[in-house]
Amino acid sequence: MNWIEKIYVSEEMQDVETVLYSLKREIPVLHVYLIAVEQQAKPRLVIISSAQALRSKTSHQALLVVGVAFGPGQARRLLADIVADASARYGTVDELPRRLMEETKK
Fold first, then answer.
1. For 97, which of 30, 37, 55, 56 could close a Cys bridge (C-beta 3.0–4.6 Å)?
2. What integer pLDDT is reported at residue 56 of this predicted model?
3. Quick check: 2 and 104 in contact, CB under 8 A?
4. Is the torsion defined by CA of 96, 50, 39, 47 positive or negative?
5. Are 52 and 89 in contact (CB under 8 A)?
6. Angle, in degrees to the nearest 10, between helices 96-105 and 72-90
7. Phi and psi at residue 74, in whole multiples of 5°?
8. Which pTM was predicted?
């Protein structure tokens, strides 16, 4: 998995440093969900549990993690916040996954 520099984190997430430490070392954390860009021909944003993301070595290598949340409800809320932030920054959410990927390359 790849990570953007400034990761989005849900407000309710506790012990963020430990969670990120574990995930970056490919240790799944129960009830933690990732908001990620699937880096394919047509990138898209997905919500996936950390356990599911790390289960398959080949599929998780194609993920660019942009957010971390505790539970699926918070993950959906965080995704809405990411979209709102992108709308405010770019004036549109068109091509949001591509824009997030470009920010990583800077």
1. 37
2. 72
3. yes
4. negative
5. no
6. 80
7. -65, -35
8. 0.85
The two three-digit tokens of residue 94, written as one number? 């068109």
SS (H, E, C) the chain: CEEEEEEEECCCCCCHHHHHHHHHCCCCCCCEEEEEEECCCCCEEEEEEHHHHHHCHHHHCCEEEEEEEECHHHHHHHHHHHHHHHHHHHCCCCCHHHHHHHHHHC
The single-letter code of the amino acid at 68 is: V
Answer for the pair 33, 45: CB distance below 8 angstroms, yes or no: no
Question: Is the separation of the CB atoms in 74 and 12 below 8 Å?
Answer: yes
* Cα angle value 70/73/78 (rounded, 5°): 75
- State the pairing for strand pair 44-49/32-38: antiparallel
